[in-house]
């Protein structure tokens, strides 16, 4: 799936994923925008993430790039929530993560 893409496009995709995860962490830290500076930083991260994603899709199919961006963002954000914020994931949450992983594998072999 990713082996046919230019390394620069992959770097843009991973930057988009990292910025999206950063935005999610900042949103949590903003306490519902009560800490407006952190909330503003979260919005800027989202804008930067979409900018990076736009550069990534110049060389990666939109369906593949968006699926990876969304899925990896969800999965990594879940683990960040567990380790940084002490959040718990129930059986339904783990099932959902498993479905995302299967979906990413299906995209790889499509």
Strand content: under 5%
| DSSP helical segment count | 4
Sheet with the most strands, sense and barrel status:
none
- Global geometry: flat
| Succession of helices and strands | HHHH
Q: How many β-strands, per DSSP?
A: 0
Uncertain residue ranges: none
What is the terminal-to-terminal distance? 8 Å
Which structural class do you get from the secondary structure elements? mainly alpha
Helix fraction by DSSP (H/I, runs of at least 4): over 70%
| Rg for CA atoms | 15 Å
Q: Oligomeric state of the chains?
A: single chain
Descriptors for this entry?
mainly alpha; cell inner membrane; Spermidine export protein MdtI; 110 residues
Compile the SSE list and pairings.
Elements: H1 7-29, H2 36-56, H3 62-85, H4 91-109
Helix pairs in contact: 1-2, 1-3, 3-4
Description:
With about 110 residues, the protein is mainly alpha-helical. Helices cover about 80% and strands about 0% of the residues. The chain contains four helices and no strands. Helix 1 runs antiparallel to helix 2. The longest helix is centred in the last third of the chain and has 24 residues. The radius of gyration is 15 Å and the shape is flat. The mean pLDDT is about 90. Forms a complex with MdtJ. Belongs to the drug/metabolite transporter (DMT) superfamily. Small multidrug resistance (SMR) (TC 2.A.7.1) family. Its main location: membrane.
Briefly say what this structure is:
The protein has helices at 7-29, 36-56, 62-85, 91-109. It has 110 residues and is mostly helical. It is flat and about 40 Å long.
């Amino acid at each position: 799936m990713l082996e046919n893409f230019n390394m620069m496009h992959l770097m843009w995709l991973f930057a988009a994923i990292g910025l999206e995860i950063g935005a999610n962490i900042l949103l949590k830290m903003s306490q519902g925008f009560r800490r407006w500076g952190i909330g503003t930083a979260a919005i800027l991260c989202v804008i930067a993430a979409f900018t990076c994603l736009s550069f990534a899709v110049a060389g990666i199919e939109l369906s593949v790039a968006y699926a990876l961006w969304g899925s990896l963002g969800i999965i990594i954000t879940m683990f960040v929530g567990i380790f940084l914020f002490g959040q718990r994931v129930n059986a339904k949450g783990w099932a959902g993560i498993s479905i995302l992983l299967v979906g990413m594998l299906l995209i790889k072999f499509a």
